[in-house]
Amino acid sequence: MLKKELRAKYKALRNQLSDEDLEEMSLTIANKVIALPVWEKTYFHIFLPIAEQKEVNTEFILHLLSGKDKEIIISKSDFETREMTHFLLTDNTKIKKNQYNIPEPVDGLEVPTHKIDVVFVPLLAFDKTGHRAGYGKGFYDKFLTECKPETIKIGLSFFEAEENIEDVFENDVKLDYCVTPNGVYQF
């Protein structure tokens, strides 16, 4: 399937999820994240979910990271340049939704991309080879190419892998893992 078709398919599937489904599946995903071999790392980048898009609720993973004393990094997006600026999440971080309902830090201590060890990646769909389809704006593709090669990229999805995403580009960065309520894919 093409990314455009996958986006439509998975947005529709997400819209069918109840709030209870969303919370239960998000918790199940977080419980599977515990088993990943990433816990010796220090700097973890995580997305704050767009509730209106019914994204995986990362609150449970945030609690895990906090409980393991990890450095948690969140981003602010610049829609003019398609750049993301990364900030350390602290008790003093003020979060505000932007015009696209993305919760973002207002400001804070900036963290350079090369420090990031693990990235939890939002997505709409992924395939059995580790390619992903997001919303199509390219923010994460650009960000992931700026990360060091050994940065671990973990997708989070309510749904299982598609066989193949047909229109992948050479600058699309593949995932290392994708976690779903039913299991963990390793690429």
TrEMBL record:
Cofactor list: Mg(2+)
InterPro entries: FTHF_cligase, FTHF_cligase-like_sf, NagB/RpiA_transferase-like
Organism: Flavobacterium fluvii
Gene Ontology BP, a term: tetrahydrofolate interconversion
Family: Belongs to the 5-formyltetrahydrofolate cyclo-ligase family.
Positions annotated to bind ATP: K3, K4, E5, L6, R7, R132, A133, G134, Y135, G136, K137, G138, F139, Y140
Higher taxonomy: Bacteria, Pseudomonadati, Bacteroidota, Flavobacteriia, Flavobacteriales
One Gene Ontology molecular-function label: 5-formyltetrahydrofolate cyclo-ligase activity
UniProt catalytic activity: (6S)-5-formyl-5,6,7,8-tetrahydrofolate + ATP = (6R)-5,10-methenyltetrahydrofolate + ADP + phosphate
Keywords (A to Z) from UniProt: ATP-binding, Ligase, Magnesium, Metal-binding, Nucleotide-binding
This protein's name: 5-formyltetrahydrofolate cyclo-ligase
Annotated positions binding substrate: I50, E55
EC number: 6.3.3.2
Recorded superkingdom: Bacteria
